[in-house]
């Protein structure tokens, strides 16, 4: 990902990611490392500006593009690793959770923090967390909107490994891909999809309902007010 300063996910960036995933699949890619050009941020999650006073059709397109990208990422036939050498809140955490393996560096915060922002992580975000860390830990983390530090993320199983820095993180991600390289492709892909199918189907069969929930939620005046205040707090911080 290379969308400075924080790889926030707007419609255009989501489309780029989606196109890249389609291309990798068409080219029979043998593995992907999802990484960031930023030295300190993996992805800041959804671009909050896409949800602030949007036009209805633009908001719908934004959400459908996010759904398209995630459906592709979660179901890739090739192995995927997230090299998390920077913070990964909310949608950034979703990207990492959607890969098959996660390597993180020290001093990083990762989690589905939506509750803390006064919004609700969509059901499929929650499913991804549950699938990785289990029901009990996911429920606790999501209710609190908890951001895990590196040690906590390792302990709870949100990530698989800690590496010292970006170079080591990429090297460990490559080692994971190498460990998968000799597995029969069809068997590997079938098992992966078997595990992920119910989560994928839940969104695929309820896409329109999911979009409607998103639209109705973000168009509420009190939610818009919350987004406005949050945007102000973010830009004050950097100002
Ligand atoms: C009943 C059922 C209802 C279901 C309803 C479903 C509704 C679901 C709706 C939404 C779901 C949303 C999921 C999300 O992903 S929301 C996004 C959450 N993300 C965050 O909270 C992260 C916010 N950012 C940060 O914490 C930091 O920026 C960090 C990533 C840690 C990086 O810190 P730092 O390096 O110090 O950078 P700055 O904070 O100074 O930021 C630099 C500039 O980038 C802007 N920024 C940051 N994050 C975002 C973002 N997510 N979107 C847009 N812009 C962002 C920030 O304002 C700075 O901009 P500027 O320099 O112009 O001031």
Automatic annotation (TrEMBL):
Keyword hit for Mitochondrion: yes
Pfam families per the UniProt record, alphabetical: ECH_1
InterPro entries noted in UniProt: ClpP/crotonase-like_dom_sf, Enoyl-CoA_hydra/iso
UniProt catalytic activity: (3Z)-decenoyl-CoA = (2E)-decenoyl-CoA; (3Z)-octenoyl-CoA = (2E)-octenoyl-CoA; (2E)-tetradecenoyl-CoA = (3Z)-tetradecenoyl-CoA; (3Z)-dodecenoyl-CoA = (2E)-dodecenoyl-CoA
Signal peptide feature range: none
Subcellular location(s) per record: Mitochondrion matrix
Record key words, sorted: Acetylation, Fatty acid metabolism, Isomerase, Lipid metabolism, Mitochondrion, Transit peptide
Example of a GO cellular component annotation carried by this entry: mitochondrial matrix
Entry's Gene Ontology molecular function annotations: delta(3)-delta(2)-enoyl-CoA isomerase activity
BP GO annotations: fatty acid beta-oxidation
Pathway: Lipid metabolism; fatty acid beta-oxidation
Assembly and interaction partners: Homotrimer.
Its biological purpose: Key enzyme of fatty acid beta-oxidation. Able to isomerize both 3-cis (3Z) and 3-trans (3E) double bonds into the 2-trans (2E) form in a range of enoyl-CoA species, with a preference for (3Z)-enoyl-CoAs over (3E)-enoyl-CoAs. The catalytic efficiency of this enzyme is not affected by the fatty acyl chain length.
PANTHER family per record: ENOYL-COA DELTA ISOMERASE 1, MITOCHONDRIAL, ENOYL-COA HYDRATASE-RELATED
Protein name: Enoyl-CoA delta isomerase 1, mitochondrial
Gene source species: Nesidiocoris tenuis
